[in-house]
Design a protein that fits this description.
Layout: H1 2-54, H2 57-74, H3 82-95, H4 100-115, H5 120-130, H6 133-149, H7 155-168, H8 172-183, H9 187-194, H10 203-216, H11 227-251
């Protein structure tokens, strides 16, 4: 189109000049465009690697296994739903408050994990070999958060989460405490479950459960995972305190 306009309004001389420039520049563009993409990709990888190098080994390992397990949750119903992928990315961006380098790292891990045939059993075995009990509680909490991030919690996700809890060796009352903050309805039932109790427990039982839960979910036990994951434990502690104060008022 440009050559045609040059011929119409500038004559043959302008046409030949533009044709010559395009003849020279086109091969350069063919070479330059892939080089630009390559340099951009290398710069992105370098930035991500620099971020990874500033984090602890426990943090990086936790993130890797967390995202790989999330990939299995996305595939739990046999279909990779783009809305679920978008919900995961939004969760990391807005709830975990990750920066651009961190988000790109998460996207790369997730993309790679969706292509791999890792089983939940193998991933949980890796997690058990890498971490103690308290990081398992943080992982379980995060999996529930992400499962509810898209506004749905279907049977395949519920079944898979139960399997993960069993494979990680999470005690039932701790699972109930985590699950209760997301799936329970009425305040009374929800607060009892957050303390790992059945509705109707007396105040002595509530007080004992509060002390045990406060020790088990204390943020200091997961600081080695990094501040974004310590915040998960801090949120849990706030809920445990809230549940205790609510039930104390009702029972005392």
């Amino acid at each position: 189109m440009l050559l045609l306009l040059a011929l119409m309004f500038g004559g043959a001389r302008l046409f030949l000049i533009l044709f010559g420039l395009m003849y020279i520049l086109f091969p350069l563009l063919v070479i330059a465009i892939p080089v630009i993409f390559l340099v951009s990709s290398m710069r992105r990888k370098s930035t991500i690697q620099n971020y990874i190098n500033t984090q602890t080994q426990d943090h990086n390992r936790f993130v890797e296994l967390f995202v790989r397990i999330l990939a299995r949750m996305v595939q739990a119903d046999g279909v990779v739903d783009p809305h679920e992928i978008a919900a995961i990315r939004k969760y990391f961006q807005y709830q975990m408050r990750l920066g651009s380098e961190q988000l790109q790292w998460i996207k790369d891990i997730l993309k790679d994990a969706l292509k791999k045939p890792d089983s939940v059993e193998d991933l949980c075995r890796e997690f058990n070999a890498s971490f103690g009990y308290e990081p398992k509680l943080v992982l379980c909490d995060l999996l529930y958060r992400v499962a509810f991030a898209d506004g749905e919690f279907d049977k395949s996700e519920q079944d898979l989460l139960r399997d993960i809890v069993a494979l990680l060796g999470i005690h039932e009352h701790h699972h109930k405490s985590i699950r209760g903050q997301y799936v329970s309805g009425e305040d009374d039932q929800r607060y009892y479950e957050i303390l790992g109790l059945e509705p109707g427990a007396d105040f002595e039982g509530v007080r004992d459960a509060y002390k045990k839960m406060s020790q088990q979910f204390h943020p200091d036990k997961v600081t080695h995972l990094g501040p974004e994951f310590a915040r998960v434990a801090e949120d849990k502690m706030k809920l445990i305190n809230e549940a205790y104060q609510y039930l104390k008022k009702k029972l005392v």
